[in-house]
Each structure stands twice: as C-alpha cells, then as structure tokens.
Write a sequence for this structure.
C-alpha cells in the first residue's frame, strides 16, 4: 500500500495500465481504512482516509487528462471536433459569424461596387 501522497507530475509519465493498477490499489486501501474506521482504528489511519481520497482523485484526473490529450491528437487534422473538445467561450461568441463570413459581400453589393466605383478627385491646392 502506498504510504505517502501521490504526486500528479509523477503520474504523468506512467502508462494507462500502471494508472489503473494504482487506482485499484488506492481503492482497496480506502476500503480497508473505512473498515478500520468502523472497527475503531487509530487516529493516524483515520486521517489517512482524506489523503487516499485525494490521491484517487489525482489518479483519475491524470487519466482523464491523458485521454483528452489523445483525443485532441486524434482529431487534430479532422474537419469536425467533438463538442467537448471545442473551445467553450460564450454562447453568443460561438453563434457569431466567423471572420470569413462577415467579410463576404452579397452578389448585389459586388455588382454595385463594380458599376459604381468610388470617384477619385484630384484636389487643386
């Protein structure tokens, strides 16, 4: 059973199998600590419950980060991106016209620009 707190930067280098193995170890440790709590274990063991819970959270966080990173890598050059990988921003910004869409001119405006160009005047000083 791990005796000290799990550090996130140490978890980053581990493989998925190692992380799942560590997660199961931590969960079994938490289970045994909860049993100790009911049986009236020592105070040092009871304070360890919090540390183990946080360690489990860290392992799960690193696993999720790695999964998202792999998904980002997979969808890198694809046309569409899953909704949860797209930038959140705000609803209004997401629905706003893109730079390209807002710069486009209608056919009528194009014809108008061609047939009635802005007149250039030479100003006499």
């Amino acid at each position: 059973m791990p005796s000290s707190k799990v550090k996130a930067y140490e978890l980053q280098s581990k493989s998925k199998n190692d992380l799942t193995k560590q997660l199961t170890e931590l969960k079994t440790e938490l289970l045994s600590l909860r049993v100790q709590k009911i049986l009236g274990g020592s105070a040092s063991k009871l304070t360890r419950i919090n540390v183990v819970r946080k360690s489990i959270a860290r392992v799960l966080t690193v696993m999720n980060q790695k999964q998202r990173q792999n998904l980002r890598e997979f969808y890198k050059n694809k046309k569409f991106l899953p909704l949860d990988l797209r930038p959140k921003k705000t609803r209004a910004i997401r629905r706003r016209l893109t730079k390209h869409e807002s710069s486009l001119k209608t056919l009528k405006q194009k014809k108008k620009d061609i047939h009635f160009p802005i007149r250039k005047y030479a100003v006499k000083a």
